[in-house]
Amino acid sequence: MDSFNQTKNTDLLSDLQEPVNFNRASKGQRFANLLIDSIILGVAQNIFAAILGLGTFESIAIGLIVNLAYYTCMEGFADGRTVGKMVTGTRVVSTSGEPLTTGRIMLRTVCRWVPFEPFSMLFGDAPWHDTWTDTTVVSSK
Questions:
Q1: CA 129 to CA 100: how far, in whole Å?
Q2: How far, in Å, are 12, 32, 69 from residue 26 at the CA level?
Q3: How far apart are CA 75 and CA 66, in angstroms?
């Protein structure tokens, strides 16, 4: 056998077939998820705003649409993952063990728009968008 066939599969989605553990992701992992996803969203929103030549109000509306589409598509089609979650080896799951629905993912995203919501993680066990939607982010590693 050559060394290529002996190397371990390092695909970011390779652990999706493994059973879900409920070891909550650390606050550091959660912060890294927020940072990575915010950078991606910021770039995407600015590109759309520049291409469409939008003013401030329209840019905000496009930002919300891009935000909703990003989280809904990523968490819905990548088994509870965004790019940030793929990098940190985490994913969102329902606390009851039920599969995530598109409605729950969308509600989770809209909850993120509540003013000061990102700070809710600092003062409690889970951020509001987890608490309000009965979800949590777990470590897949």
A1: 14
A2: 19, 10, 26
A3: 14
Q: Which two tokens stand for residue 77?
A: 């089609």
Dihedral over Cα of 117, 119, 123, 127: its sign: positive
- Token pair 């992992």 in the structure block, residue: 29
Distance CA 91, CA 24 (A): 10
Tokens found for residue 4: 């290529």
DSSP characters over 12-57: TTGGGGSPPP--BPPHHHHHHHHHHHHHHHHHHHHHHHHHHT--HH
Indicate the SS3 state at residue 135: strand
**pLDDT truncated to tens, each residue of the chain (141 aa)?**
444 344 444 555 555 555 556 799 999 999 999 999 999 999 999 898 888 888 778 888 889 999 999 999 999 999 999 999 999 999 999 999 889 999 999 999 999 999 999 889 888 888 999 999 999 999 986
Strand partners, 92: 137
pTM of the model: 0.80
Residue extents of the structural domains in the chain: 24-139
